[in-house]
């Protein structure tokens, strides 16, 4: 049974999870600001965590979407959506959109990255090469 679970976990699933974790982190951070006096201001604003989440999301996205493109469906739209979404994530995190717009840009970027993984997963499942390799997805 454990082998079946490991076979079903794909890089897209991990990428969706990483994107959602990043989005939750970015959405929850402003809400928890009111707790800073109780927790200490350094706990929630951790640059290493930010860079780690961004790096992990980018690495998984490149591996997953690259594999989907080169080995399965050859559709560039998921890669374009991922690139635009990740550019918005970086822009939001590094101050291109400041003030009120920063969380909005980050949220849209995370949605783009997540959407790219979902689209890639759908395209891989619809691809005849993918169906040939994994008959349980027919």
Counting H and I runs of at least 4 residues, what is the number of helices? 7
Note the run of SSEs as H and E: HHHHHHH
Broad structural category:
mainly alpha
Morphology call: elongated
Q: Which radius of gyration do the C-alpha atoms yield? A: 17 Å
N/C terminus separation: 20 Å
Content of β-strand:
under 5%
Major sheet characteristics = none
* Helical proportion, percent range: over 70%
Low-confidence stretches: 134-138
Q: Give a count of the beta strands, DSSP E runs of length 2 or more.
A: 0
Average pLDDT reading: 76
Walkthrough of the structure:
This protein is mainly α and 138 residues long. The protein contains seven helices and no strands. The chain has helices spanning 2-8, 11-32, 36-39, 47-73, 77-93, 101-126, 128-133. Helix 5 (77-93) packs antiparallel against helix 6 (101-126). The protein starts with a helix and ends in a 5-residue tail after the last helix. The model is unreliable at 134-138 (pLDDT under 50).
Element layout with pairings:
Layout: H1 2-8, H2 11-32, H3 36-39, H4 47-73, H5 77-93, H6 101-126, H7 128-133
Helix pairs in contact: 2-4, 2-6, 4-5, 4-6, 5-6
Salient structural properties:
mainly alpha; 79% helix; elongated; disordered C terminus
Short description, anyone?
By secondary structure, the protein is mainly alpha-helical. The protein has seven helices and no strands.
């Amino acid at each position: 049974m454990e082998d079946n679970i490991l076979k079903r976990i794909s890089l897209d699933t991990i990428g969706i999870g990483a994107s959602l974790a990043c989005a939750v982190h970015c959405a929850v951070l402003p809400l928890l600001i009111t707790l800073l006096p109780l927790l200490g201001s350094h706990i929630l604003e951790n640059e290493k965590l930010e860079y780690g989440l961004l790096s992990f999301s980018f690495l998984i996205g490149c591996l997953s979407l690259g594999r989907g493109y080169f080995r399965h469906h050859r559709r560039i739209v998921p890669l374009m959506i991922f690139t635009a979404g990740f550019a918005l994530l970086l822009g939001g995190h590094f101050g291109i959109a400041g003030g009120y717009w920063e969380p909005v840009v980050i949220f849209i970027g995370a949605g783009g990255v997540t959407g790219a993984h979902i689209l890639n997963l759908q395209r891989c499942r619809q691809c005849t090469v993918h169906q040939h390799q994994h008959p349980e997805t027919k």
